[in-house]
Each structure stands twice: as C-alpha cells, then as structure tokens.
Please model this.
Amino acid sequence: MKKPLIGVLTALLLAGATALAGAAPASAATAPAASEAQTLTDAAPAAAPAPAAPAVTVSFAGTVALSNCSGSLVRLPGSAAGDPALVLSNGHCLESGMPGPGEVVVNQASSRTFSLLSASGAKLGTLRASKVVYGTMTDTDVSLYQLNTTYSAIQSRYGIAPLTIAATHPAQGTSIKVVSGYWKKIYSCSVDGFVYRLKEGEWTFKDSVRYTSSCNTIGGTSGSPVVNAATGEVVAVNNTGNEDGESCTVNNPCEVDQNGTVTVHQGINYAQETYGIPACFAAGNRLDLTRAGCTLPRP
Model:
C-alpha cells in the first residue's frame, strides 16, 4: 500500500521534492469547446445541435492533505448543503493504525485535522473531524471522517464545494486523475481494468481498479480521490502499488483471478472503488450499514 509517511526515509523526501518541482499544473486541461452551431440551409433548417456537456476542470479544489496521507472533501449524491461534511481517505491512513483483516471501525471519536486546498493547491484553512464514521481494510481500503462543520459553512467561508462520489461502477478505459493533496500533484492515466482479488500481506481487496502505467503514485498519495476526468466525480480512492516485483507482500500486491491464478505487475498501482459507499448512508449523511444495497463490511 502507499504507506503513510511516518518515519519516511530521506530518499523518499527527496523524491517527493522532485515530484513537487515537476508537479502537474493546478488544473487539468479543459475539454475542447463545443463546435459552432451548424448553418441553416435554404432547403430545410438543420436541427439545433445538442447542448455541449459542461467542461470539467480537475484541480486541487475539494482535496485535503492529512498528516501522512491525501484525502478529499466529499458528498454523496443525496447529501444536502446543511449536512455534516465528510472527508474520504484510506483505511490504512487512520490515526489509530491499520485495521486488521476483518476489523471495521464505526463512529469512533476523532479530532483529526485536514488542510483544505484551493484549486491551485494553496492551503485555505484547517478542517477538523468529530469522528471516524467508517474505516476498514477488509474488501476495500477506505476511511470516512465526519467533520464538525457543514458543506454550506465550508462553501461560505472558503468557496470550496465537495467532490461527489459516483454511485455507479467505473468503466474500463475511463480517463482519470489521481489528485494528491499531500504532494500537491495530479497524476493522469486511465482505468486499465479491474482485479477480482488484490492480495497484499494479510489484506484482500475486492474488485480493485488497476491503473495504466502513467499513474506512478508514491507514498503519501494514499487516500487521494480518483476522479473521472469527464464528469469530475470520485470513482475510487488510491491505495497501493507493486513496488519491488514481490508477490502478495506489503507494498507488493498481487492479482488473483477467479481461478486462483496469481499475477504480479511491478510498478503498477491500484485504487479501491467507491461506488458502493452511497448505498450505506441515509439522509443527513447518516451511516446505516443495514440499508438495502449496502455491501460495505460490517463490524
């Protein structure tokens, strides 16, 4: 997994400095503008062109930096402006340590802080958690913090809106951006495919996203939102990669297919899908793991 940066080696810090120096621009390239309307002919008026989809610019707006990881301010499709705000990161980024296999953290008090970033990556202010709503490394690698403030209060004070977690499964070939608030770096690639089981040390993740090779994420990018470059929605959360070519060890996850065949892709990185999260929340951003359609592991 993309380790939390506690006791990180000097070499990694130097590598991070290099990454910062060559970081991508704060905003991704804007989609091409819509073509001009067709000219009417004398014989018969041409049909009006379909409205162009709004251009999506993926930036650092809505992302946060943790003490050791990355994350994002997120809303669910049904969240309201007055709901308590949520921050998404990895289960292995929890301040209490990595949950063991089968362990699920629910509604645990927390006062953790997060640096809220502007579109350019500048720190706007500090957000504070009131609790860990949910955290686990079983089947997935996710943590969700509830803040002591609302989306509307954050919007009013900082001008920042949350990212929306998509409620549909991502598609192979989708263009994505992995946005690291910790390093203030945006990685661009595509969804290469999906992994039936991704095994790493004691943990097993289900239906993981495999990136194409250009998303060469590093330690500290853990918890970064994986954003659909066309819609701006969060489709996954960045969490691990095979660093040394080893098989099924920590920092060297292996892929296991439905027949039990093990495959190793050194240098390839992965994320955990987030489309199943919305089904586990009721009105008011209230976690309810008993809701119909909720498949997140229970305590």
Q: What stands out?
A: The CA atoms of residues 6 and 112 lie 16 Å apart. Confidence is low (pLDDT under 50) at residues 6-50. The first strand starts at residue 63 and ends at 65.
